[in-house]
Every structure is written in C-alpha cells, then in structure tokens.
Design goal:
By secondary structure, the chain is α/β, with parallel strands linked by helices. Helices cover about 40% and strands about 20% of the residues. The protein has two domains: about 5-65, no CATH class; about 75-265, Rossmann fold (3-Layer(aba) Sandwich), CATH 3.40.50. The strands form two sheets. A seven-stranded mixed sheet has the order 6-2-1-7-8-10-9. A three-stranded antiparallel sheet has the order 3-5-4.
Length: about 270
C-alpha cells in the first residue's frame, strides 16, 4: 500500500493525514494484512467491501488505531499536576473531584494519575472523593487496562523506588503488575468519543493524542464543543504536547507552565 492509497483510506474514515503521517508504516502493514485476508487486490475493492460489511469496517477501524503511550509521558505535565493543578483543585473541591480520561488506551496515563493522587496523601490530611472515568472505544484496550500488566519499557519515566511502591515485578523483572491499591475506584467504560461525554462537571479531562490528532478538523468541531461543555468552570483540559486546539477554544486559558494544559474560564466556583 503506497501513501496515495493510504490517503484514500484516511479520507474514507475522515482521518487526518497529518496525524497519521509519522505512524503510518505500522498502520499500513496491518491494513495490508487485512486486505490480503479479505482477498482484496486493491484499495478500491477494499473500500467497496467496507461499504457493505459493517463487521469488517469495524475491524479496519480497530487496525487503524494507534496506541503509543507510557507512564508519565511528558514528565513536566505530571510534575505540574502534582505541585500546582491538583493541589488547587483539592483546596477548592472539598467533597469530590471528577476526572475523565477520553481515549485511555491501555491505561498507562490513568495509572500515572492514580500514582500522583496517592502521593498527594502525604501533603493533605484529607483528599476529596475521586470519581475517575476512563473510556476507550476498543473493548480489548479496556480489558488490558483493567489487567494493569506492563513491560519494563512502559515504566522508563518512573524511578525505581516509585516502581517498587506501585508495581509488583514478575518474570525476571520485565513484567510489572499494577498493585491492587491504585486499581481501585476506576470506572472503565467502552465508549466512542463521538457519542459524547460520559457525564458532566469534570474538573479534569484528559484528551491526549486521539481526537485532536487523528481526525479531520471538520469532524472534531461538535465533539470538542461537547467535551468543553462537560468541563466544569475552572476545570482543566489536558491535551497532547504536540496537539493544537481547534478554533472553538476561546473559553480556555493556557497554563503558562504546562503549555498543553488549558483552564476553562472560572465564572463560578469550580
């Protein structure tokens, strides 16, 4: 499959060439194998089949999913969360803090958050009740996230002394199982982001390296607006470090320290 054929497939699903450009090699291999399995000799025949076969269309979409993550990806973000953003929210929210991970993939960033949250117990006598929803459109990703089993390469940003607190080492030190204590109170859900948020009044929404990267701009508009509406006044929207907000973001103010974190205008108490 050459790039021109791959662009035809991207246009079919209204995905973004800019988002897929750097990761296209692996995706093209997966799609080529799918075409061979279906005995489709070229991209045009493949697209015709996808038009009439919903099951294979969903299989194709899953094979186009890019899930590249690790614990504490973009380390500066997690330091600012621990030292600034979360303490401010905790002081304002005495009873409950609502967090949504939109497109949680295999759960690395969800558990990164849970580690930060647990470490905050050192500085606060009492933390608000945490209600955390983690969603992804792929059931197999949710299952893997629930299992909480990772390889050493996923933990390269975590110092060994912290690894020992939050993970159990298995199989000669290359398998790391998330300890049960930080797997509690996570509401994992299978959810397509285009079906809308799983609630409202979120104090933090993690929207990292999915919607704003892999979809064409006209497809993003309504969903992005719904996500901003689900965010509480004074709440934080956190995106990927290389992503840009669409034009529908006038109500958001950029964090001068972490440039990919944005706060919704605080017209009311958080």
């Amino acid at each position: 499959m050459d790039d021109q054929q791959f662009k035809q497939l991207l246009d079919y699903f209204q995905y973004s060439w800019v988002g897929y450009r750097k990761v296209r090699k692996g995706v093209k291999k997966r799609i080529s194998r799918h075409m061979q399995q279906l005995r489709c000799p070229n991209i045009n025949e493949y697209l015709k089949l996808l038009d009439t076969n919903k099951k294979e269309r969903e299989t194709c979409k899953k094979r186009m999913t890019v899930s590249i993550s690790r614990f504490f990806r973009d380390r500066k973000l997690w330091l600012d969360l621990e030292k600034e953003m979360l303490p401010d929210l905790i002081e304002a929210q005495k009873d409950k803090l609502n967090v949504w991970f939109a497109g949680c993939a295999r759960g690395e960033e969800v558990y990164s958050f849970m580690i930060v949250w647990d470490r905050l117990k050192i500085f606060f006598k009492r933390l608000p009740k945490l209600e955390l929803i983690a969603t992804d459109m792929h059931p197999e990703y949710i299952d893997k996230a629930k299992d909480g089993i990772y390889t050493k390469s996923s933990l390269k940003e975590i110092p060994e002394e912290i690894q020992d607190v939050y993970f159990d080492r298995k199989k000669g030190g290359n398998r790391f199982d998330v300890k049960a204590a930080i797997k509690e109170n996570i509401n994992w859900q299978v959810l397509d982001i285009f079906s809308g948020p799983p609630g409202s009044g979120f104090h933090i929404v993690f929207l990292r390296n999915n919607l704003l990267t892999y979809y064409q701009s006209h497809l993003i508009k309504n969903t992005f607006t719904q996500i901003i509406e689900s965010l509480s006044h004074g709440g934080w929207l956190i995106i990927g470090s290389h992503e840009k907000l669409p034009e529908e973001s006038l109500r958001l103010t950029r964090n001068p320290s972490t440039l990919w974190a944005y706060r919704k205008e605080a017209t009311n108490r958080i």
